[in-house]
Design brief:
- With 250 residues, the protein is of the alpha+beta class.
- The protein has 2 domains: 12-90, no CATH class; 99-249, Cupredoxins -  blue copper proteins (Immunoglobulin-like), CATH 2.60.40.
- The chain is 38% helix and 22% strand.
- A 5-stranded mixed β-sheet has the order 3-2-1-5-8. A 5-stranded mixed β-sheet has the order 4-10-9-6-7.
- The longest helix is centred in the first third of the chain and has 35 residues, at 12-46.
- The radius of gyration is 26 Å and the shape is elongated.
- The N and C termini lie far apart (53 Å).
- The structure holds copper (II) ion.
């Protein structure tokens, strides 16, 4: 559909297809309802006795109960066909090569954390949060897993590799939204949510916040950059080198 932002995710094709199909069903049903209303109006005007005859059980079945059942069936089918697409995004990708990234919503910024070479996220402590000092998430420097954690304000991902996002919030409810990846999930304080997807098309995609989370809500935006695996590896090792250099000067 040409009015949607270009899709860059693997599952986006099926989702867009489903959306198009549902919208066209709704369009034709809407049109049919208007035609029926108009037809009933003209029929009533040209034949005033028809309204009284319309109260029979047979007309009730044909004109009200059957369409009602048909529309209920249609809605049930829509729920079942869309639910598995929705649910698949909430599962954790079991593939060994899936990339774990943690997303944190903070008034009014998105932070992205990569667990580093050890594959384990370091411990976070709210009392250690200090963005001006370079520790916006409150990483515990005593924890051995936190030394190689990379915290970024831009979400860098390699193309064609499943991503396991863990979403959290540091303060209020934020709405994590990447229109170009057909992803949307609230981040809730005190709770972790999950999103799984595979970015396919390299490029830049805006990340927005869709919950009115405070005065700076409108500028709570970030960027997803999808790179080739080689460019991603280069970015990742540069960040790791920068971490080690900072460690050495400490
Ligand atoms: Cu927000």
């Amino acid at each position: 559909m040409h009015w949607l932002p270009p899709n860059g995710a693997l599952h986006g094709v099926a989702l867009d297809h489903l959306l198009g199909r549902y919208l066209s069903i709704m369009f034709w049903l809407f049109l049919a309802a208007q035609v029926l209303i108009l037809a009933a109006m003209f029929r009533r005007r040209s034949n005033p006795g028809a309204a009284r005859r319309g109260q029979s059980t047979r007309v009730f079945l044909a004109a009200e109960l059957l369409p009602l059942l048909a529309i209920s069936g249609l809605f049930a089918w829509m729920i079942f066909t869309s639910h598995h697409l929705w649910a698949a995004r909430r599962e954790v990708a079991a593939e060994a090569q899936a990339l774990p990234v943690e997303v944190t919503g903070v008034q009014f910024q998105w932070y992205f954390r990569y667990p580093g070479a050890d594959g384990v996220y370091g411990a976070l402590h709210p009392e250690l949060v200090n963005a001006p000092a370079g520790n916006p998430l409150g990483l515990d420097p005593q924890d051995r897993h936190s030394a190689d954690d990379i915290v970024s304000s831009i979400l860098m991902l390699p193309a064609n590799r499943p991503v396991n996002l863990t979403l959290r919030s540091q303060d209020v409810i934020h709405g994590f939204f990447i229109p170009g990846m057909r992803l949307k999930q609230d981040t809730i304080p005190g709770m972790q949510s999950h999103l799984t997807f595979t970015p396919e098309t390299p490029g830049d995609y805006p990340i927005l916040c869709t919950q009115v989370c405070g005065l700076g809500h409108a500028r709570m935006q970030a960027r997803l950059r999808v790179l080739s695996q080689m460019d991603y590896n280069r970015w990742f090792s540069a960040r790791e080198r920068a971490l080690r250099a900072a460690e050495a000067t400490r």
